[in-house]
Design a protein that fits this description.
With 199 residues, this protein is an alpha+beta fold. It contains five helices and six strands.
Length: 199
């Protein structure tokens, strides 16, 4: 499901009706001014054993996460996150956000916006962070030729999925699934030996 069509449940827990827990407040403040932050300040947000997952990599450990951000985000001209919806519980939260960014190699440094979802688990700091977003919308669709191909494939898949769902909707009775923790990507990130060029 495309994240820009995913709406969070408007019913909030008691936690989101009161003051935001300190670890989540630190998390939001860091990303709201992401391009002005120091990556070494991530230890104010994340625990030493944090697990971070996105459509590109799985990150384990704070030092590895710092290196990942330095390599992936070092060339961004601007980058801020706007939090547009949230559901907060005692030790977990789900944020819907819009990332506003510019990159000199993408669309001639024009402002772009990406919509995504973050699943957070925390105690005194954030211990688990998983991002969900459309990698094509972030990068591939803005590359000439490749972007047109990606958009065409996505359009075709959407049509095929709609047709398939109509034909199989009557065969779903009796199916059962087990609740489980969100999956972590198996593509484990390994830091480069030198300073990476990033996006």
């Amino acid at each position: 499901m495309s994240t820009n069509k995913l709406l969070l449940n408007p019913v909030r827990s008691d936690y989101s009706r009161t003051l935001m827990p300190a670890p989540l407040e630190a998390f939001k403040q860091y990303y709201q001014a992401f391009d002005r932050q120091l990556f070494d300040d991530l230890d104010q947000v994340y625990s030493d054993n944090v697990v971070f997952s996105d459509p590109v990599h799985e990150i384990q450990g704070l030092n590895t996460l710092k290196q990942y951000f330095k390599e992936m985000c070092g060339n961004l001209t601007d980058c801020q996150f706007e939090f547009v919806d949230e559901v907060v519980d005692e030790n977990s939260a789900c944020f819907k956000w819009e990332m506003h960014y510019r990159h000199p190699s993408i669309k001639r440094n024009k402002p772009l916006t990406l919509t995504g979802i973050s699943l957070i688990k925390f105690s005194d700091k954030v211990e688990y962070h998983e991002d969900f977003y459309d990698m094509g919308a972030m990068l591939y669709e803005h590359i000439p030729v490749l972007g047109s191909a990606v958009r065409m494939i996505k359009s075709r898949l959407a049509k095929e999925s709609s047709t398939h769902n109509k034909g199989t909707s009557t065969h779903n009775n009796g199916a059962s699934t087990k609740n489980k923790e969100p999956s972590i990507n198996s593509n484990v990130y390994e830091p480069h030996s030198g300073e990476g060029k990033g996006l």
